[in-house]
Amino acid sequence: MSGTTDHFGAIAILNLQSRFMKRNRHAAGFSAIEMLVAVALLAAVIGVVVKGMTDMQKRNFSETSKMDSVQDARDFIDQMVRDIHMTGYPPPRATAAGGGTPYCTDAQGTGVPNLAMRDNPAIACGIVQFSPTKVVYEGDLDGSGTVSTVVLQLVVGNGGTCPCTLQRGVVTKAQWLAGNAPQYFTTVNGVLNSGNGAAPPVSTFGVNLFGPGNYLAWSRADVFDAYVADGTTFPAAACSLGEVSTPAITNPDCSQIRSLQITANVAPAYADPTTKQFSVYSITSKARINF
Asked: Which sequence spans correspond to the domains of the chain?
């Protein structure tokens, strides 16, 4: 009996060991279905995290673009205001070469340039060209005694429409007389308005921004507006003292302009990531010529 008992006992032990080993094999890993479920859950979590990071990055780009656009436009306009305060100085009457002549034209309002004054690099003739999208003026901008020529202009964008670029370039008047064009280091991108000075206002270039939204109303304002001494609007759509040493001009001459206004309706480079529309910011400033 003892041998039979030992035999059955050995069999029982072997059965227990077999069950234990099977249980360990099942507990040692995941089934294929369990693995697929785990991978799917992990992919879903990663997808949510990546989407959140992408949305945050888009929002950051949008907000940074807004701040940059507004700051660039404000810096540009502040620079123009500083320029205008020094435009027209030194005038002909303040120089020995001017001999007391008050204008760079034969008489104010005639539009006939006095070439002896117009082509003198030491004399500032004030605003020498004006239109709703371009202004050229002369002045001693830094008090150094050197007269500079400043060109502000709106440059049409790709496809012949806005968003356009507003540029500011400066050369000395001597360089301007020698035919050297200014280099444009100061710019504002994303300008939507390109009014042509008409009433009611009409856009010169129109506007084309991708995505939803209608921006036509922002495109009609003039970039530059001019006013005479009594504060009324300059009566002509444009004026010019002509190119250097060229008597051909557009009447009336620009000497009647006493103040300039600049308006920039600016859209950032990136649209709002939620609405897909561009936020437009309008900045306007007016400056009076002191001389």
From this structure: 50-288
